[in-house]
Structure to design on (266 residues):
């Protein structure tokens, strides 16, 4: 089956492409570097020819609500409308656990992305219905502290204080592929990792594993969002959802372990 992966060159998107290929499917990558701009819609119709299902893991790097809303609104609408034109039977979106509770600027964009899908604001089919959909909310990836560190290079590492139950991006991708190959689920049960962590502590362990020396400065994000992050607003609600099996330390050993061994002189 041809499955479009919006953001298929990104972190989780790359794994989605690998998992689809391994399962014998044909991923079609939608990204600017592949000639498709989801914000303007350029190149989209040509790329969507013959596509039966879509996984949306597109993203932008911003903390501003207005920028995030503008991106997810246009990308989501273009993708759903293009999907409806070729008769897509399942549209799967990756979102984030705790959007309402934490309310960061970027999260306003993710809420808008969900809303367009859930309320059927785009992607109306010839029969009048919206493209059938699934929204998967996942917790932060094990890769998240890497993304935080690399956002601001330099001797100082400013890290938000936050409780999280991180999951490997590869496991998120595996779950997205299982979902897209199955029937539409609406709001799917939240996906999280095996254990609760503090982002500051994860970042410390990551720096050690990389053999990097940076002064780590934990900060509470301002306002209600900051309080919610400290108090666990990003943790999954209930214990019923699926759980990844790889712990952060196992992920570190697999991906960043060499640096750690060098630090210990092994
Ligand atoms: N990071 C986390 O811990 C976490 C946790 C839960 C959920 N999520 C969600 O997971 C999703 C994927 O995140 P990620 O970190 O894997 O993303 P990422 O690595 O930043 O990749 C973003 C992707 O979007 C594409 N893209 C950006 N602008 C585009 C445009 N205008 N048109 C077409 N493609 C565009 C990029 O390709 P080009 O640059 O080539 O266009 C790239 O393939 C996000 O929606 C995020 O909210 C993240």
């Amino acid at each position: 089956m041809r499955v479009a992966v919006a953001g298929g060159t990104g972190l989780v998107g790359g794994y989605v492409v690998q998992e689809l290929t391994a399962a014998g499917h044909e991923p079609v990558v939608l990204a600017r570097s592949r000639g498709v701009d989801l914000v303007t819609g350029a190149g989209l119709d040509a790329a969507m020819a013959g596509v039966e299902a879509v996984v949306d893991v597109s993203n932008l790097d911003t903390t501003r609500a207005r920028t995030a809303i503008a991106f997810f609104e246009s990308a989501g609408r273009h993708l759903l409308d293009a999907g409806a034109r070729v008769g897509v039977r399942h549209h799967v979106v990756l979102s984030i656990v705790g959007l309402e509770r934490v309310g960061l600027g970027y999260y306003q964009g993710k809420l808008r992305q969900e809303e367009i899908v859930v309320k059927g604001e785009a992607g109306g089919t010839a029969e009048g219905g919206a493209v059938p959909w699934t929204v998967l909310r996942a917790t932060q990836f094990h890769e998240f502290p890497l993304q935080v560190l690399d956002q601001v290079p330099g001797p100082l590492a400013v890290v938000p204080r936050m409780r999280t139950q991180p999951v490997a991006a590869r496991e998120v991708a595996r779950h997205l592929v299982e979902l897209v190959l199955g029937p539409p689920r609406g709001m799917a049960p939240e996906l999280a990792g095996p254990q609760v962590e503090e982002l500051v502590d994860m970042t410390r362990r990551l720096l050690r594993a990389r053999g990097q020396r940076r002064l780590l400065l934990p900060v509470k994000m301002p306002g209600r969002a900051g309080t919610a992050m400290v108090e666990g607003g990003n943790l999954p609600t209930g214990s019923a959802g699926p759980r990844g099996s790889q712990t952060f330390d196992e992920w570190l050993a697999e991906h960043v372990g060499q640096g750690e061994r060098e630090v210990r002189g092994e």
Residues 262-266 have pLDDT under 50 and may be disordered. The chain has one domain: 2-263. Residues 159 and 200 are 6 Å apart (CA to CA).
